[in-house]
Design brief:
This protein is an alpha/beta fold. 34% of the residues lie in helices and 21% in strands. A hairpin with a 4-residue loop joins β12 and β13. It is elongated, with a radius of gyration of 23 Å.
Length: 419
């Protein structure tokens, strides 16, 4: 019965899209400094919705997430939005902010001849965490074809910021609920996390859902450069072209669009220094020290453990990863010794027989404002005392840690679409 219900949903959504039952509206996006219009946020919903706004657009997205045809449907919606913008006479300099699903990125057309990042594909933060391997591949593909990449629905839960360093969005779209949060400590932590990203990359914050004059105070307190919401006028089916802004808030954004290849150890070799040599006891202590540091880093952190071919773990390691699981945004453990997560709630993926990561041990920790790495490769020959020894890299160099995390995440298994 569940299969039949999903099939019926697929057919209904496909028919809705193919028959022109989705309307596209354009909501103004303005510069918080000048109040000049900088683009339009695309909102799409069925034609029979009584009012169109962020909620209606999100309702459609939720229905899509339950469909096996999500990629095809999203590609159709994207094509419809771009055709509608062109028909309205919007020039390429009028930037579009478009909610997007990574499943549709395989059908992206080349925009390398268009103005830089004239369309920002906004990936939902929760969707990024459900399938990071495919998302990171899709993000690289999109950027190489001239599309901008952003994230949306960030900040209501601090865990939603955990993938910001890996996706490196040019636009961080705040969840509309952020403007209604009364917890000052939550807002202070969110500010710290997001501005670390802004300082490193030149990205901007987009505050969504601005409704009242009071919301502008929150926008200024959070340092959002772009704003959207009913305060700036209703979404319309007939957007008006506007002159290119004098200053582009995204002009300074930069991203490293590297392929996620290798292993944490092979990436650490790029530090171009000799590795340390340790026995197993010292290596375990070194890894445990960084794992304890991860415990103090909060919900916006990713922690990835690499365990070679180990099948079992000490009770201390198990206890530590259970605490990490309950503390950080995403926790994963990788080993050639297991295919299922060794601890409930911890993610994993396949490390097959040919994978060089089967010879590695370590941990990668990446947060929005700090990072750390221990990456070790087991030597074939024992040390002078006959013990197993490891070549070990230890670093807090940001790009090495980020690249190491991205490489490990290429092996992670996605969660089910129902999650």
């Amino acid at each position: 019965m569940v299969v039949e219900a999903v099939h019926d949903l697929d057919l209904a959504l496909e028919e809705l899209v193919r028959s022109g039952g989705i309307e596209t509206y354009f909501a103004p996006v303005v510069d918080a400094y000048t109040f000049d219009k900088v683009g339009y946020q695309i909102l799409q919903a069925p034609t029979d919705d009584p009012a169109l706004g962020h909620a209606e657009s999100e309702n459609l997205r939720r229905e899509m997430h339950a469909s096996a045809m999500i990629g095809d449907i999203d590609a159709s919606l994207r094509a419809t939005a771009l055709r509608t913008a062109e028909a309205a006479g919007l020039p390429k300099s009028n930037r579009l902010f478009l909610h997007a699903e990574d499943e549709s990125f395989a059908t992206l057309e080349d925009r390398t001849e268009e103005p830089d990042r004239s369309v920002i594909l906004q990936l939902d933060a929760s969707r990024v965490s459900s399938s990071p391997a495919s998302v990171l591949r899709a993000v690289r593909q999109a950027r190489s074809m001239g599309w901008g990449v952003g994230m949306s629905s960030v900040g209501a839960d601090l865990r939603s910021t955990s993938f910001v360093p890996l996706v490196n969005p040019s636009v961080v779209g705040l969840h509309p609920d952020v403007l209604r949060i009364d917890c000052e400590s939550h807002l202070a932590e969110l500010n710290r996390l997001l501005h670390a990203h802004l300082e490193r990359t030149g990205a901007v914050i987009l505050a969504e859902g601005v409704t009242t004059e009071d919301d502008l105070d929150r926008v200024r307190a959070l340092g959002a450069r772009f704003m959207s919401g009913p305060f700036f006028g209703p979404a319309t089916k007939q957007p008006e072209p506007f002159a290119e802004p004098i200053e582009d808030g995204l002009i300074d954004h930069h991203s490293r669009n590297l392929a996620a290849l290798g292993t944490p150890y092979s990436i650490a070799q790029g530090l171009r220094r000799e590795p340390l040599v340790m026995n197993r006891e010292l290596l375990v202590a070194q890894i445990a020290a960084l794992e304890e540091r991860a415990l103090a880093s909060g919900a916006a952190t990713i922690t990835l453990g690499v365990f070679g071919e180990d099948e079992t773990f000490s009770q201390a390691t198990r206890d530590r990863y259970e605490r990490i699981r309950d503390t950080v945004g995403l926790t994963a453990m990788f080993s050639g010794g297991f295919t299922e997560p060794p601890i409930p709630g911890v993610r994993t993926g396949v490390v097959d027989a040919s994978d060089p990561m089967r010879n590695e041990h370590g941990v990668v920790v990446v947060g929005p404002d700090w990072s750390g790495l221990v990456a070790a490769s087991k030597r074939n020959d024992p040390g002078s005392d006959g013990q197993v020894v490891f070549d070990v890299y230890i670093t807090t160099e940001r790009y090495t840690c980020v690249d190491a995390a991205r490489s490990a995440l290429t092996r992670i298994s996605p969660v089910s679409s129902a999650s």
